[in-house]
Design goal:
1011 residues, alpha+beta, 29 helices, six-stranded antiparallel sheet
């Protein structure tokens, strides 16, 4: 069976519509899902970062307040208990914290607010140790307070004396369950169900803040949010809180975050279903009706689509559906042409730029204002604006623009453009999508040049800040005379509070009646006519007493010339008025002074002819001042000087005050002068002439040249010195350095100058000299030494910081640094110290060396908890050897015994002779006591072998001796060196009593000072 054309058309169109609707729906939903999730995450991330920045700022404010309190406490002192408690109460830190406490360096709480009967010790707290050891402020991890067992975060800062000595730690707590900077945020909600969570950022993060108080201080995993269903997770974003090294998390449950998306999906599916069914039915019914006139009009429609203004021939006379459709179509096209022309006329006359962009980012239509704003020609309208974007970001901007014009959402943005004529403009862009059948065909929008408005806004903010700081009185009134602004100085003078409202006040509340009448009759009309009125008037102070002011009233107009408001600028001239009479009395004296000043003073009219000159012209040039009146400057100075002076004179005649330097030659020789040109204006503000002041600065230039020569000589001398010499200003920046600095740091003088001490030395070295720099900048002459010990080198320097006071001696503007290398002297000192600790007979350490090394060994053992031993040795019967063979033989025996002692011990063991036949051995890093006991037994056995003693001019002696040893151990504790030596000596005494020639060992290591 052959189907008719309309049947086939209906079936085909229905199938295509259904397929297109389904594909469009799927594509729209996919884009909607992706864009919705991206937008939600971006918005939530921005909100999270904003909240984190706000909380970070508040924590910084809390730390700063605590640090200020610590500095004040350090300045007051730390000794009086009552004073400490009063200090905490007076500072009222509870306005920001839940409680505050002051601890000494042992961790004991010495003051607390609110007071507590038995305050705990905080020496074991990490934050306390960090502040005490590093002297830096600290914010603790969340913890339970020792007193109330409440979850809290502790902020702590060091308390130092003005000399920089640490004397305690000031801490304050933020209870995580109360209303404070953290507690308030835990109760805050975002949207319908979002909430904030704060966790630490260490290896095992803990919950710092959570709306569920049962999760506080728990591991962060316990506060994790499980998926709302099997597929979607809660929407969570994170941001860092830098002051506390925490992480702020904003969590929105999945059921809330994705609810709009789910609703949109269901609605879209339903709409697609009904749309498909409706389209199928309508296409089936409509195809048979539209097919007949459609074919007749196809050609006309195609022609009009490509050329809307072309003439087409339609059969409008037919008395059937085709004729009726043709007539309606012809009428429709006529209306569309008329509407298109009307729209074109409106858009071309629009004061804002209008455009339409397709989905490829090309401008398919722009009006004339759009082209004018961008500085483009119409042939460049399609993508010409991209050429106004910086080349390095042009491709990125193009891709972003294509993305935007394909989105179904309106957007607004500002864009900075560099026009081809070199000017820069800031434009505001607003755009809305063109959506047909659910598909974005492009965007239409407006472009507005906001360059001047932005500059005006910035200028207004700057001007308002200036108004708030000036001591002059500034008020602004609307056209009805009501106040809209009054700066702090005016409020103070008129007795008005800084926060008092002024909307109901007017000019008559602050001015006498005669001043108000003058405003009506003179001031306002003049300001309206000329834009500004300048004069003097009388106003009221806080007690409604009149006082004179220098008054300026400015009329501000909008771009259409309509007055928007008035500004009044007033300055108290009471003192000036009182001085005016004295000024008039002194005019004659001033004239005399002018004639006797050593500078050229003149007045020039608009034609630059002399109308007044002082007597200095005669002194400099030998010309009678009266003969100069009426002569032009060009005629007087000549063409060569005139070419140099003319640009400055023209600039001054244009209304600017000008100062420049030039050189003149007269009967007195060459002179270097500084010329100042000040315009004189009439009441209308027009420049009428110039006042000139020419000062002789020849001596100043000669002094500068001499100063430069002196500085060069000084630099030569400083570069020849063997030490490092530099000058550092109050900002700790190098302003001068000798050649030795370049050799030391391998940098040129230009690379050093301008850099700070911290930048040049590095952070560790800077921290060591920082207190000395602070002392020098406080006016103190500082001398100190610093050592630099490396694996293969040792250097020592002596530094002297000499403050440099200002010329008025009121402040210190910097200091001079003189750094001398004293490495050789230090090495010689160490060599002499070492010689003082060596026994000259045996080469072993003497008593002084033994005591120094024993203290160091015990300190190492105490810090590491390692086992060490001390042997106390005594040669049995040594007195008989001296009595029988003489002291020389005894000395030889001692040296031989020392050699045998060295061979029987480890190379790291310290051997010492205390005097006579008493020796000691220090053994460190022992794994157990058996090592030392075994070494002592081997020494006893080795000593029993005969000693062969050589004698001059006599036969060799063979001497037999035995050895007694007392052995004691140490492995940490508060015992001192004397206690350990005493224990070893006791064991030696037991060895003597036990028949000698043996080792006696203390049963337990020495722990404390008790024997």
């Amino acid at each position: 069976m052959r189907l008719k054309l309309r049947t086939k058309t209906a079936l085909l169109v229905t199938s295509l519509v259904l397929a297109l609707v389904g594909a469009t729906g799927w594509w729209q939903y996919r884009n909607l899902s992706s864009e919705y999730l991206t937008l939600m995450r971006e918005q939530q991330q921005a909100l999270t970062e904003s909240a984190a920045a706000d909380l970070d700022y508040k924590l910084g404010v809390h730390l700063a307040a605590l640090a200020r309190a610590a500095r004040e406490l350090g300045a007051r002192g730390f000794d009086d208990a009552d004073a400490r408690q009063r200090f905490l109460s007076d500072m009222d830190l509870r306005a920001m914290f839940d409680d505050a406490a002051l601890a000494n360096l042992d961790g004991a709480i010495v003051a607390i607010n609110p007071p507590a009967s038995d305050p705990p010790n905080v020496a074991d707290r990490d934050y306390f140790r960090q502040v005490r050891d590093l002297r830096q402020p600290a914010i603790s991890a969340p913890l339970l307070t020792k007193g109330g067992k409440q979850p809290a975060v502790i902020m702590a800062v060091p308390v130092e004396t003005p000399e920089g000595r640490l004397i305690g730690v000031l801490g304050a707590a933020l209870n995580l369950q109360r209303a404070n900077v953290l507690g308030d945020m835990s109760q805050a909600t975002v949207g319908r169900g979002g909430y904030y969570v704060i966790v630490t950022r260490d290896a095992s993060p803990q919950v710092v803040m959570h709306h569920d108080s049962t999760l506080l201080l728990k591991p962060a995993s316990a506060a994790a949010v499980a998926p709302a269903d099997g597929t979607l997770n809660d929407l969570a974003t994170r941001a860092t809180i830098r002051n506390a090294d925490w992480e702020l998390r904003l969590i929105v449950p999945a059921s809330i975050a994705y609810a709009p998306l789910e609703q949109a999906r269901r609605a879209l599916l339903l709409q697609l279903l009904w749309l498909g069914l409706g389209c199928a039915l309508l296409v089936w019914l409509g195809t048979s009706w539209v097919m007949r006139p459609l074919e007749a009009l196809t050609k006309a429609i195609r022609s009009l689509r490509h050329s809307p203004d072309s003439k087409v021939k339609l059969d409008v006379a037919a008395n059937d559906e085709r004729g009726e459709l043709a007539r309606e179509f012809d009428a429709l096209m006529a209306e569309l042409r008329e509407q298109r022309l009307e729209v074109a006329a409106v858009t071309d006359a629009s004061p804002v730029g209008l455009f339409r962009s397709d989905t490829e980012g090309r401008a398919t239509y722009v009006n004339d204002e759009y082209l004018a704003i961008h500085g483009l020609e119409r042939k460049d309208a399609a993508q010409g604006w991209l050429t106004l974007v910086r080349e390095d970001i042009r491709e990125k901007v193009r891709k972003e623009w294509i993305r935007l014009v394909n989105t179904p959402e309106p957007f607004s943005a500002t864009r900075r453009l560099h026009r081809r004529d070199g000017t820069r403009v800031l434009v505001a862009l607003k755009s809305r999508p063109v959506i047909v059948g659910g598909r974005v065909l492009g965007h239409v929008g407006t472009v507005t040049d906001i360059t001047e408005r932005t500059r005006a806004d910035e200028a207004l903010r700057t001007l308002t800040a200036i108004f708030d700081m000036t001591t002059d009185y500034i008020v602004q009134l609307d056209v009805a005379g009501r106040l809209i602004y009054m700066n702090p100085a005016a409020r103070l003078r008129t007795g008005l509070r800084l926060d008092a409202p002024i909307e109901q006040l007017s000019a008559s509340d602050f001015n006498p009646p005669r001043t108000i009448e003058r405003f009506r009759s003179e001031v306002v009309p003049t300001a309206l006519a000329n834009g500004v009125w300048v004069g003097e008037s009388m106003v009221w102070d806080a007690e409604r007493r009149e006082f004179p002011v220098s008054h300026m009233v400015i009329a501000h107009r909008d771009k259409h010339g309509k007055v928007e408001y008035f500004s009044g600028l007033m300055r108290d001239i009471s003192a000036a008025k009182a001085a005016q009479q004295a000024l008039r009395n002194s005019e004659h004296r001033l004239r005399m002074v002018t004639d006797h000043l050593p500078a050229l003073i003149s007045y020039l009219d608009w034609d630059l002819r002399f109308r007044f000159v002082n007597k200095a012209y005669q002194d400099w040039f030998g010309v009678d001042p009266e003969k100069l009146i009426g002569r032009s400057m060009r005629e007087f100075y000549g063409d060569e000087a005139w070419a140099q002076m003319e640009p400055h004179l023209r600039a001054a005649l244009a209304g600017r005050q000008v100062t420049y330097e030039r050189r003149v030659t007269g009967p007195g020789g060459r002179r270097d002068i500084q010329a100042t040109l000040v315009p004189e204006r009439n009441e209308q503000g027009r420049v009428m002439g110039l006042y000139t002041l020419d000062s002789d600065i020849t001596a100043h230039h000669e002094a500068e040249e001499a100063l430069q020569e002196s500085e060069a000589r000084l630099r030569t001398v400083a570069d020849a010195l063997p030490m490092r010499v530099a000058y550092i200003d109050a900002d700790e920046r190098y302003r001068f350095n000798a050649l030795a600095y370049e050799r030391e740091f391998g940098l040129s003088r230009d690379q050093i100058q301008g850099h700070t001490v911290q930048e040049l030395l590095g952070e560790p070295a800077y921290e060591s000299v920082k207190p000395h720099i602070r002392a020098a900048l406080a006016g103190e002459v500082v001398t100190f030494q610093s050592e630099d010990t490396q694996s293969d080198s040792y250097n020592c320097y002596e530094a002297q910081y000499i403050p440099q006071p200002a010329a008025n001696a009121d402040t210190i503007v910097g200091f001079h640094a003189v750094i001398t290398d004293i490495t050789r002297q230090k090495l010689e000192e160490k060599r002499l110290v070492n010689l003082a600790q060596i026994d000259p007979l045996t080469g072993l350490a003497n008593r002084a060396g033994f005591q120094a090394r024993l203290g160091e060994a015990m300190e190492r053992s105490r810090g590491a908890g390692a086992l060490m031993a001390l042997m106390y040795l005594d040669i049995d019967g040594f007195k008989q050897v001296n009595d029988q063979f003489g002291h020389q033989a005894g000395d030889e025996l001692l040296k031989a015994f020392s050699n045998r002692l060295s061979h029987g011990l480890r190379s790291t063991d310290v051997r010492a002779r205390l005097g006579g036949d008493e020796f000691t051995v220090i053994m460190e890093g022992l794994p157990n006591t058996d090592v030392a006991v075994s070494a002592a037994a081997k020494l006893v056995a080795a000593t029993q072998a005969p000693f062969a003693i050589e004698q001059q001019h006599q036969a060799q002696l063979t001497i037999n001796i035995t050895l007694s040893i007392g052995l004691a151990f140490y492995q940490g504790g508060n015992a001192d060196a004397a206690t350990l030596v005493k224990r070893a000596d006791e064991m030696l005494y037991q060895a003597k009593r036990s028949g000698r020639n043996n080792v006696q060992v203390a049963p337990l290591p020495v722990q404390d000072d008790r024997p």
